[in-house]
Every structure is written in C-alpha cells, then in structure tokens.
Write a structure and sequence with these properties.
CATH architecture of the largest domain: Alpha Horseshoe
Helix content: 55-70%
Order of helices and strands: EEHHHHHHHHHHHHHHHH
Number of strands: 2
Structural class: mainly alpha
CATH class of the largest domain: Mainly Alpha
Number of helices: 16
Length: 330
C-alpha cells in the first residue's frame, strides 16, 4: 500500500452504513483526498464540472468501500459545493440523489452533505430552483433519523413558502407531518418553536381540535427556563384564541394569568395592567363553581390589583356580578 492510502490507528473511526451496520475504517485515503479535491475544484472552475465530479465519484467509491468516513464526507461535500458554485442546479440535485443512494453509503457522510446543501436553500432566490432543491433534500432525508433536524427545518421552510403563496391549508398539512416531540437530537427550544408554528397554522385554518391536541405536546414547565419568555407569550396567546372559540372563560383567565406572571410583562406597566384586567374580566365571565371561586380569591390577594380600583371592586363583588354589571368598567 502506498503512502497515499495508508491504514492508520489514528483515523480508525467507526462509521455506520445506510443499512445500520457499524464498520471500522480499513484504509485511510486522506492523503489522496487532499490532492484530488483541489485538482477537481480547479477543473470545475475551468468549466469542466462533469469531469471534476466524475473524478471525485471514482474516488468516493474507494473511500466508501474502505469505510473511510472522514474522506467520504469530504468528497460528498466537495461534489455539491462544486455544483453549487457552478450554479448547475440540475447537477446539484442529481448528485445529491446519486450520492445518498449509493450502496452501503456512510450515514455520517450523507449527513455532512445534507447539512452543506441546507445552506444553499436560503441563498437561492429563484423559487422554482428553491422548491426543487427542497424537494430533493426532503426526499433523501425521508425516514432517516440522522438527518431528522435538517428535514424538519426544510419542511418548515416549505410550509412558509406555501403560506406566503396563500395556500395556508397546504402549509398546515405539510407541517403536521412532523413529530418533532420524538426527535432526540433536537434542542427543546427548537421543538417548542416547531410545535407553536403547528398550532398557529392549525388556528389559521380553524382546526381548533387539532390545535388542542398539538398543544398538549408542550410541557409548560419549559416556560420556567431562561430565555423562554417570548415562546411562553406566544403559546398562551395561541391558547387564548383556542379557548375563545370554545367559550372556555376560566381557561382564558388562566392563560392571561400566565401571561401576567411573565417577568417582561410585569416590568411594563401598560402590559401588566392590560393582562391583569383581562384576568379579572374572564374570571367574572366564567361560570361559578369551586375552581372559579378559588381563582377569584387568589386573584384578590394580588397587591397590584390595588392600582386598578374598579377591577379590584369587581373581584370583590364577583359572586354578585352578572353580565349587566359590566357598566362599572366604563
């Protein structure tokens, strides 16, 4: 074996093939790849893209067969980069499909290629080209856990495009296919962002039952974490819309109370006053029962209510109030 392709202990990483089989690198092609990629990049810049790609594809077969995950990843990324730089979108889409479907392809290499191509989606201004690239990437990521985050983000981008074009129903349908709550590799905050977007689109198409179901995927304890205030407010405002449709006044009162108890709301006089007023109005609207009565007493202990005398009076008189009593707020 030449020094261009040596077996080494240092690079003997374990890789996983598309069939799930774990393999160990047999040959290190890093030196060969170090030479071949710059050569092919030069060819591509000279207008010989096809020749350059073919030069890397022949080497890719060797690195893949030898389970050299790092070298295979470098080659896959280099191929799509050359196609992108040449603005040859047909070649880009074709090679994404080809490389992802090659026999016993290494999962890590496909993931690196997909992550590289994901960057191109936002860069493309031509809608037809963008949609085709999204479709290609969604096709090669379908059912692959190791690229589930990229697929989710691509799906969200596609849903945004559909919504902007006026097809809100299709946007909602596309986003509903994602079960991000099961994604072990996705950060909790991003999961919540996705679920909130699913809720928003369901409300937009007036699918309130599905919105309720989706909302249960969010553990509201998450909103106690730092940096979650914006998502918390978005969640409770969406829930208010759902419960307004259902006429669930006590639930709406609780949602406004959660909004009111948010630090950024309490720091703003106008915002906390509006939130607290809404808490009072909806607890009065709610049918009398033990839960409503208990909530009235808890609201009445809030010292800030003293700054809203009419509303404090309303809370004190809640058992005696009826809808005809709302003149006190005028």
């Amino acid at each position: 074996m030449t020094n261009m392709a040596n077996t080494t202990d240092e690079r003997a990483e374990r890789a996983e093939r598309s069939d799930g089989k774990m393999v160990k690198m047999e040959v290190d092609y890093s030196s060969t790849v170090d030479l071949r990629i710059p050569e092919c990049e030069r060819m591509a810049k000279e207008g010989k893209l096809q020749e350059a790609v073919e030069g890397l594809l022949s080497l890719e077969k060797q690195t893949r067969t030898a389970s050299d995950m790092v070298s295979t990843s470098r080659i896959l990324v280099a191929v799509v980069q050359m196609c992108h730089e040449a603005k040859d979108w047909d070649a880009l889409n074709e090679n994404i499909m080809l490389l992802s479907k090659r026999r016993s392809q290494l999962k890590q290499a496909v993931a690196k290629m997909v992550q590289e191509c994901y960057k191109y989606v936002d860069e493309v201004s031509d809608l037809a080209i963008k949609l085709r690239l999204i479709d290609t990437l969604r096709t090669v990521t379908a059912g692959k856990i190791y690229v589930e985050i990229e697929r989710a983000r691509l799906t969200k981008t596609l849903a945004n495009i559909k919504e902007q074009s006026g097809d809100v129903k299709e946007a909602a349908s596309i986003l509903q296919e994602l079960q991000v709550e099961t994604y072990g590799s996705m950060e909790k905050k991003e999961k919540v962002e996705f679920i909130l977007e699913q809720m928003r689109l369901c409300i937009a198409v007036k699918d309130y039952i599905r919105t309720q179901i989706i909302s249960k995927k969010i553990n509201t304890k998450f909103f106690q974490e730092d940096g979650s205030e914006e998502l918390k407010l978005k969640y409770y405002n969406l829930m208010i819309q759902v419960d307004q449709h259902e006429g669930s006044y006590l639930s709406i009162c609780k949602h406004f109370r959660a909004i009111y108890d948010t630090p950024c709301i309490l720091e703003d006089n106008a915002k906390w006053q509006q939130a607290l007023k809404s808490v009072v109005l909806y607890v009065i609207l709610a049918p009398y029962d033990n839960e409503q009565s208990d909530l009235v007493h808890r609201i009445n202990t809030d010292k800030k209510l003293e700054e809203l005398p009419k509303y404090r009076y309303a809370v004190l008189k809640t058992p005696e109030l009826s809808l005809s009593s709302f003149g006190i707020f005028r």
